[in-house]
Specification:
- The chain is mainly alpha-helical.
- The protein folds into two domains: about 5-190 and about 275-295, no CATH class; about 190-270, no CATH class.
- Helix content is about 60%, strand content about 5%.
- It contains 13 helices and three strands.
- The protein has helices at about 5-30, 35-50, 55-70, 80, 85-110, 120-135, 145-155, 165-170, 180-190, 190-205, 245-260, 275-290, 290-295, and strands at about 215-220, 230, 265-270.
- The chain has a three-stranded antiparallel beta sheet.
- Helix 1 (about 5-30) packs antiparallel against helix 12, helix 6 (about 120-135) packs antiparallel against helix 7 and helix 9 (about 180-190) packs across helix 12.
């Protein structure tokens, strides 16, 4: 039986999926988990086709890892959390340990690669650990960003098609998950944000010290219509703000407070969705590979 090589198709799926998610996030500041679920399942299925020629073991292990990723995208714990609050956390920890143990056993018994443990499964599992660690350390904006990183690792475990990366940097990409490249490229892309804000403020003659690089002035009446944080004066974000609607209501309250004080305009910081930066990181990763690795390889 001949299998079609669909590894490049997975890259296309990842690019399209992240661009769609970024567009939704820009418009609503929320990404429905169903987008990530569809992307993860489709990408996981394509990777299973790639692994199929190696036999049952690699495909079965890969299916377990994809299921492990998917459980982060569905609300399986809703039915348990009210009756048994401690159960979901315990079950999830057990899943992390069990999947890691499975990868270790298969590696010990059948080796890595070929008909043994697929390197794609190692990369996807490592990506989940990285995303979860960043989330628990509060280095990501929220759970949605962690889910996006996990899905990226399941769809494209390693960067298999780089258009313009220097030859010296290509070998480096084979040693760590593509999601790491996406994260690093997204961080590099974030440098453009303060530069763009400075250019905007310079064009309009708006200056406010360091805030010239982090925000811009906005009429108070426009606060509810813009996805921004008020930074001058500073208003602390409420702990109960969890959705875009909650955030809008908070901006409405701030608008009312400021208007009552006679304030007509304030300096604000735009809420740039991290998913947008991750989408940029995906595109940069496909075209250039890891930008930092490229830079160091040219030194």
């Amino acid at each position: 039986m001949n299998f079609v090589d669909v590894s490049d198709a997975a890259i296309g799926v990842l690019i399209v999926g992240f661009l769609v998610a970024a567009a939704v996030d820009l418009r609503t500041r929320e990404v429905d988990d169903r987008i990530w679920l569809a992307l993860g399942l489709l990408g996981g299925a394509l990777q299973a086709i790639v692994l199929a020629p190696d036999g049952v073991v690699p495909v079965a292990v890969w299916a377990v890892v994809v299921a492990f990723v998917v459980q982060h995208l569905v609300p399986w714990d809703d039915a348990l959390v009210e009756a048994h609050p401690s159960w979901p956390g315990a079950i999830e920890i057990a899943a992390y340990i069990a999947v890691g143990a499975l990868l270790a056993v298969v590696s010990w018994r059948d080796g890595i690669g070929g008909s043994g443990l697929p390197t794609a499964a190692i990369a996807a599992y490592a990506t989940v650990l990285i995303a979860r660690a960043l989330f628990e350390a509060n280095l990501l904006y929220g759970g949605a960003d962690a889910k996006a990183i996990m899905v990226a690792g399941a769809v494209v475990p390693f960067d298999t098609m780089v258009v313009m990366a220097p030859h010296a940097a290509l070998g480096i990409l084979a040693f760590y998950p593509f999601a790491v490249t996406v994260l690093m490229n997204g961080a590099v892309a974030a440098v453009a944000i303060p530069l763009a804000l400075f250019a905007r403020n310079a064009r309009h003659g708006d200056w406010n010290g360091a805030r010239t690089f982090t925000g811009y002035p906005l009429a108070v009446d426009q606060l509810p219509e813009r996805f921004v944080w008020v930074t001058d004066p500073t208003f602390h974000r409420d702990d109960d703000v969890e959705t875009a609607d909650d955030d809008r209501r908070l901006r409405e309250r701030i608008r009312d407070e400021l208007k009552a004080k006679g304030v007509a305009a304030v300096w604000v910081t735009p809420q740039i969705p991290f998913v947008v930066l991750l989408a940029v990181g995906v595109v940069l990763g496909v075209v250039f590979g890891n930008l930092l690795a490229d830079a160091f390889s040219l030194l």
